[in-house]
Every structure is written in structure tokens, then in C-alpha cells.
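ok so for the tutorial part 2 we go from a plain amino acid sequence to predicted C-alpha cells. step 1 is just haveing the sequence, like this:
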Amino acid sequence: MLSDMTAHVSPILTREGLANHARSNRRQTVDIALRLLATPSENPPGDTRGIAAEVLALLKEVPGVKAELHASSDSIYNVVARLKGGRPGPRLIFNGHLDTFPLSSRDEWGASPAGALVGSRVYGLGISDMKGGLAASLFALQNLAVARSSWAGEVVATFAGDEETMGRLGTQFLLDTVAEARGDAVICADAGSPRVLRVGEKGLIWLRLAAKGRSSHAAHVHRGDSAIDKLIMAIAKIASLRDLAVKSPANVLETIATASPVSEALSGEGESEVLRSVTVTFGTISGGRLPNLVSDAAEATADIRLPFGVTVAEIRTLIEGFVDSIDGVSVDYIQSYEPSWTAPESPIVQAVAACVQEVMGVTPVVNMRVGASDARLYRAAGHPTVVCGLTPNNMGAANEFVEAEELMCLGEVLTLAAFDFLNREVVRPR
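step 2 — the prediction. this is what the C-alpha cells look like for a chain of 430 residues:
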């Protein structure tokens, strides 16, 4: 319980005292994670009222924290918590999400998806994505609360109820409606690894292709006009985007190359090429009615990921040129967002990297991230943002787990990185 860590504790006045306090209480990070795992928050269906209430209850045990619920729908609840330091200064955001993937393959779980500590591992649905990261953020808030007279500015936690479905009712809602959700820098503890700090993400376009033709019997193919043939041509043209030469900035390419040996060991061989390239994935395709009928309608959906160095508008212009060249084919854009990037030299990235080295004894690399997170929303809003989370194992599948040692280390890293960032000598005016 958080209250066990805060009761009868004298104020901490030095960084050394804060580090010792976090180290002495690090096991509590696991306890917090297990408490969060016990409350389901699968999305879909996307009901985060229960987990938001649990987080609010945990926050109310932390001295000096002011926490509020912010509902963006009948079932999506977000939590915003504020903790002020001892003097004016910058505002640091801890960002995370409350929702998880839906539970699948329940019979394949050996440990409880509602949370279990088995040996050196913490199991549970969403432990890596990202209830472990939430627990580390809550643990950091508790430690910073005990030491709040020793650091400047303010820490704000934005715990979003909607991330798995792209964040419109979660972090984006908070950025649009809650002034305190904006600050000077952001640490997001989403899934990843403390050994690979993620400072950028690829952009995205989701689209739907529709082709119209004229049906006829296959024996009289000359009387028909195949929608499927048209769709195949459109698919081939859009797939050619994979060969697009992208002029990414030299520092981005250098960052990817430098991180590659460490990053690919965790995320798989080929990650570096994916980060540098436009990728195109056709997720669904349908059309026609019978094998012996020329199809009069066909449809496909695609996921296109954009490296830093090309924009959504540039890719859309190419797509529309492809589509316009094929009679009877149209395109509908489902959603999109731009690639994002925070310079590795940013103070928040440097603070987190130094604390990973201090706590874990490893020098982290810095890299882009192949998947999406709410960090992209903060970068789009102009916030320097770094993702430092837990190494996932079986994420989204049965027996999802993280290493308990890494979870405890993450709580210490977030604590000290926040303290160092807020107490740095040069403070950007708000």
C-alpha cells in the first residue's frame, strides 16, 4: 500500500536521501502493479471506470497530491494528478494509459491474468502495456511527495483511459481540455525497455480502398468489368510506396544505426530497416460473390507507416495519384498522424538515460519506436517526450510478464529522473 511508504516519514532534503528512500521501498512497485492488475480494464470494451477509481484511491494516499477524474465518455475515465515542489519551476508530465488489450486464450494462462508474482516474474494482462509502467509512475510520485520540498516546479500525471484505440478519448482529450496536462517535458512509461529509450515514432495512415465494376457471368467475361482486378492494380501501386526513397535527417538515421545492435536484440532483426522505410500492410480484402461471376465490388484496408522525413500530405498525394489513374477506384482515409521526434540531446532524455545508468548499471541507447504510443500526441503538442518502459514478454498473449527486478528499477529511474530534470540549473520559462 502506498500509505505504508508515506506514514511517519520525515521530509527528504537531498537527492541521496531520495535515492536511498526509493531503493529501500522498491518492492512496493510490485505491490502497486499487482493491485492494478486485479482491476480489469480491457479495451474493447473500453470501460476504465474501475481502474480509474483504483488509481484515484492510490493517489489519495500520497501526501500533497491532488487528483481528479476526467470523463470523456460514459465509460472512459481519465485521471490527472498534480504534485507541487518546494519552489517555482518547470512542469514534468508522467504519462500512461489505463486500458489494456482484451483477454484472449484464457485457458492458455498458467498464471492468473489478474496478476501474480511467480518467482522473479510479474504476470498479468497488461503488465507490460502498461500497468507496470503505471505502477512505476505511481511509485515515483510517492517518493517525490516525500521529497517535495527538495525539488522545483510540479509533477503532473496524466493517466489516460483510452490508448489502445488511438487515444482520442484519453491523452488527446486531456491535452484538449485540461490545462495542467501540458508541461515542459514528458516521460511515458509505456512498453519498451529501459535499455532502449524511445524518442520518436513513425507516422501512420489507415485507409480503405473501394473498387466498383460491372458483374457478368465468367463465361461472358467480355461483358463484365472486374472490381477485383481494379483493386489488385490499386494495391500493387500503393505497395510500391515501400520502395520510396525517404530523405530522413542525418541525425535520425545516425540514431537508428547506433542503437541497432541493442535495439534489434530486443525488438527483432530488421527493426532498423523498418524505422527507415515506408511500410505498407494490407490488413483486409474482400470482394465478389461467386467464383463464376465477375466481381462488381471489392474493398481492402491498409496500414501505412511513415518514417521521420516524410509527411502524411506527401504520401496522400502519391496515393491519390495512384487511385485517380484507375477508373472506378476510390480511397477513404480512416485516420492519420505525422511522424514524431524528440532530440536525444533534450534534457529529459539525458536525465532518464543518466538515471538508467545509475540504477541499472547499463548505458541505454536511444532510438525510434516502431509502434504507436501516446508519446506521439505529446510530441505533436510540442512537448519533448521520452518513452522509458518495461521489456514486454508475451505482450497481448497468454502469460504476459515482466521481470520484477526491472519493474522495481523502473520505479527508481522515474523517481530520480524527475528529481534531476526539475532541479536542473537552466529552466525554460513557462
